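Severity: low
Component: inverse-folding endpoint
Summary: output formatting inconsistent between runs
Steps to reproduce: submit the following structure tokens with default settings.
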């Protein structure tokens, strides 16, 4: 049975490890009715929860952060076993989950506090904005970051006063279930957050039909489908989708540091990372030096199924990912690309291992020139100038992440501002922007809709409500004043208002 087959009622599905095929546990194969009843229970639990003061809700998130850190070894083991990623990559995810929960525990009350705005008639009208929870938030998450992408978007949704129904990917539900257990141990009411397990193409539609906001992370193809259904219902959808991310090595970059950064940026979590780099544009003056050092360093990456800290990379998630990565590389090689490092599967290490692969001579007709590979494969190109690098980096419908390397911060920033992506990391691959939890994270173009993290990452789960109160008379011509006179006075007042040296909120 494949991970996305529909099961019979009451059936459970075994979850296996990509490392060695061992069975790690099993989960129910839920159907549409299970989704509907989970939403109904969550909605009921949400009514009481929405009445809790934000500070009380925030204490649950703070305790969850502590539990994640206290049990990090256990969580790392689970993420490693279920997803296959190396211990160090699993740790990064555990840390990110704790930091995001801590960030919202500290800041939610500030973001959700009512605020005053200038009224229609200053001093006569008072206006304030309040943030009401939307109700039930649906979250659909992928397998590549089974912990952080399952719960880190749920924490702000919960702190904003919502209930949550989560559908994790069918390949990695055990991590999501464990994390939600810890949220409950931290004080989350039992029914407030439900996890439904089963195929996305069966559970997705009833989930979207019953929730008030959808937070989706996954491929652009599925993102289009779920966003269309959200559009039909006129509910908002945040979609964090794919990328074809570029790294720019400017003429004044430090090649040694850049190579180290590029290794992490291209191959972390075996390249199965939405913000991973799949294209590198190197100034022609550094191209040969960079390629030689990068290929040599790539060849020294330690692949393995072991759970020690010494392993750099684990396998690909499944046979489907292995087939896709192999097809992209084989197609490029058949059409004339040069393999500087890697380029082959490693069945001797496990069923779905693939070597970190560096290619040059990639041309536009090759599949991987434009399509997201989502594996440990990167194409390196020489460019003659900053402008050529910027134009090449922007020549894609995606717009998720980019990375710029230079010894001059000013030079790097000037280039960064010309890149059409949601995040740009300077002298880092992706972790600087992703880990800046106070700053919005997300994609332009076909990389997504909306943002996670920061103020945007919590207020999107609310309906802003403006309450405006009027003192004195109604807005309009006062009794006894001719309409023409009123219009003339108001015209003069409008001109004056916008000339006053006031900064009105
Ligand atoms: P996917 O779209 O196939 O699956 C993602 C989730 O959607 C899973 O839970 C799946 O069960 C569910 N799903 C599948 N079909 C569905 C349907 N018809 N209706 C509703 N839900 C459905 O994605 P994938 O290929 O497994 O994940 C990798 C992709 O995710 C890559 O493209 C990657 O770039 C992207 N991604 C993006 C981010 C980001 O933050 N931008 C983060 C991680 C992954």
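Observed output (run 2 of 3):
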């Amino acid at each position: 049975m494949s991970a996305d087959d529909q099961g019979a009622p009451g059936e459970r599905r075994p979850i296996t490890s990509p490392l060695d095929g061992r069975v790690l546990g099993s989960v129910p194969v839920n159907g549409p009715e299970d989704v509907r009843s989970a939403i109904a229970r969550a909605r009921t639990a949400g009514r009481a929860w929405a009445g809790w003061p934000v500070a009380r809700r925030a204490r649950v998130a703070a305790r969850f952060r502590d539990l994640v850190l206290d049990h990090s070894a256990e969580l790392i083991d689970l993420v490693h076993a279920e997803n296959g990623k190396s211990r160090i990559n699993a740790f990064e995810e555990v840390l990110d989950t704790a930091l995001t929960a801590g960030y919202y525990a500290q800041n939610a009350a500030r973001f959700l506090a009512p605020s005053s705005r200038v009224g229609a008639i200053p001093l006569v009208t008072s206006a304030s904005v309040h943030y009401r929870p939307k109700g039930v938030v649906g979250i659909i998450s992928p397998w590549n970051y089974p912990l952080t992408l399952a719960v880190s978007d749920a924490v702000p949704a919960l702190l904003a006063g919502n209930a949550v129904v989560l559908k994790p990917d069918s390949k990695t539900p055990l991590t999501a279930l464990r994390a939600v257990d810890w949220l409950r141990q931290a004080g989350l009411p039992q029914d407030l957050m439900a996890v439904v397990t089963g195929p996305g193409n069966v559970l997705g539609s009833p989930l979207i039909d019953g929730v008030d906001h959808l937070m989706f992370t996954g491929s652009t193809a599925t993102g289009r489908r779920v966003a269309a259904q959200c559009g039909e219902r006129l509910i908002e959808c945040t979609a964090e989708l794919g990328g074809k991310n570029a790294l720019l090595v400017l003429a004044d970059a430090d090649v040694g540091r850049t190579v180290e950064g590029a290794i992490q940026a291209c191959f972390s979590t075996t390249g199965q990372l939405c913000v991973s780099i799949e294209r590198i544009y190197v100034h022609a003056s550094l191209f040969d030096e960079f390629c030689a050092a990068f290929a040599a360093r790539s060849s020294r990456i330690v692949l393995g199924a072991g759970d020690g800290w010494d392993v750099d990379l684990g396998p690909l998630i499944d046979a489907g990912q292995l087939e896709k990565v192999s097809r992209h590389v084989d197609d490029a090689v058949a059409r004339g690309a040069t393999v500087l490092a890697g380029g082959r599967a490693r069945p001797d290490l496990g069923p779905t291992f693939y070597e970190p692969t560096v290619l040059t001579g990639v041309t536009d007709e090759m599949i991987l020139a434009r399509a997201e590979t989502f594996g440990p494969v990167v194409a390196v190109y020489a460019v003659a100038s900053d402008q050529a690098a910027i134009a090449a980096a922007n020549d894609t419908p995606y717009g998720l992440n980019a990375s710029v390397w230079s010894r001059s911060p000013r030079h790097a920033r000037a280039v960064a501002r010309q890149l059409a992506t949601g995040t740009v990391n300077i002298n880092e691959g992706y972790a600087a922007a992703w880990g800046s939890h106070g700053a919005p994270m997300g994609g332009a173009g076909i990389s997504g809709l909306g943002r996670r993290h920061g103020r945007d990452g919590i207020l999107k789960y609310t309906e802003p409500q403006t309450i405006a109160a009027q003192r004195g008379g109604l807005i309009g011509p006062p009794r006894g004043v001719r309409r023409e006179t009123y219009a003339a006075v108001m015209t003069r007042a409008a001109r004056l208002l916008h000339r006053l040296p006031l900064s009105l909120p």
